[in-house]
Amino acid sequence: MSFRITLLTAALLVSQLSQAKTPASLPQIAAIADSVSSASGSADYRALQDHVQSALVDAIKGKHDRIERSQLEEVKQDKSLADKAWLKASGYDFAKKANQQAGIALLSAFSTQPEAVLRQNLETVESINLNATATLRQQALIDAEGQNYLYFLADALGPRLGQAFVNAYNKGELGKAAALIKASEVSTGEAKKHFDNKRPFLIPANTIHLVPDTAVVKDNQPYTADGGSYPSGHTNSGYTDSLLMAQMVPERYLPLIDRGARYGYSRIVLGVHYPLDVIGSRMVAQRNVAHYLNDPAYRKLFDEAKQQLRTALEKECGMSLKACAQVPLKDDPYAAKSMQTFYRFTMTYNLPAQKVKAAPLVVPQGAEVLLEAPLPNLSAAQRRQLLVRTALAGGYPLSGNAEQSFWQRVNLHDAVSAARH
């Protein structure tokens, strides 16, 4: 994307909320993350979690009596879940190679990170991994093994709409959305090769505890991963899927983008990724989703998939989507105010910021599309101004040139929250 929009009048403004409070501690963040696991105090939400886990296990198992670990690398949405024929017939070119190279360029600031940042990068993953509760570990395993499916999105839809989503998904009634969302993920494989960074559990003298699988395959084999660590492929999938679903179901926009952040956090719980891996994947996913949504040919497919999904969910709910999405706060942990704190934390993972010279934040042409669905009454210019006003302070790791700084600093949660309240 080119940079044509410089908001000089708002360049130095930062959300008061983003600056006013002391950063949350790792134990505080772990407690928030646990609140959206099966440790939730809501029986309805725990029932949704059980439903999601059961549906995922059944999908992976397929016609087999049990899940074998060798199946995990092969399983993916089949034609009963995703309408791949519809997508193929469209002839749409996702330009994956070009977008992969754009991602590598966006992430290049990794190579110039100070030693202090890299040291804390490892220390943070060790602390989060070692102190994770059993429920955090279980959720992380479910997220990891469910990468090729969309079941995890149900968590952020609330107990009623989440159950409807799983049911409609299993019936193949969300086939266009399922196919398009997964096809929109741009692989991080080339970036991993380019940066060639070792995973935390491979660093000499690390204290990582590899988590045995007691949730999906249930063979007690420690969860591990191969290939380079930077950026995180799972996080890229989680953020991409969550962002696109948030555009389709803006009634649950904030919970859905928080789910993307929670998905990335789970990779650190398992000890297979660093904070920088997760932060980098958030940046790339945001860039890629905005890129696609600004393409008229993609948007045509997106609108068709969105309409099918919303119609199917309303049918499954037996009421309007707006009504189905509303549940009491006590049963809706993803709607809790604490999730705003969690989202902000995952933008930096409390890694140290460098002092930088104040400069206007430059908004890439079309980036405001990410706020279009939740804030339809604002003009494009107003959405751009909002992105600047609520952006993270400058100087945090992976900020570099104008494009890198924008995608690292853009705070979608605060932007939408500020506009709504």
Q: What does the secondary structure layout of this molecule look like, with pairings?
A:
Blueprint (H helix, E strand, L loop, with lengths): L4 E2 L9 H5 L5 H10 L7 H19 L22 H7 L5 H11 L8 H16 L3 H12 L13 H12 L4 H9 L5 H7 L37 H16 L4 H17 L5 H19 L2 H22 L3 H5 L12 H11 L13 E2 L16 H10 L12 H8 L2 H9 L1
Antiparallel strand pairs: 1-2
Helix pairs in contact: 3-8, 5-10, 7-12, 8-14, 9-14, 11-12, 11-13, 12-13, 12-16, 17-19
Keywords, please?
mainly alpha, 2 strands, about 55% helix, 19 helices, single chain, about 425 residues, disordered N terminus, Vanadium-containing Chloroperoxidase, domain 1
Which outline best applies?
globular
What is the N-to-C succession of helices and strands?
EHHHHHHHHHHHHHHHHEHHH
In the CATH hierarchy, what is the class?
A: Mainly Alpha
Largest sheet: spatial strand order:
1-2
Average residue-wise pLDDT: 93
- Helix segment tally: 19
CATH architecture annotation name: Up-down Bundle
CATH superfamily name? Phosphatidic acid phosphatase type 2/haloperoxidase
Structural class: mainly alpha
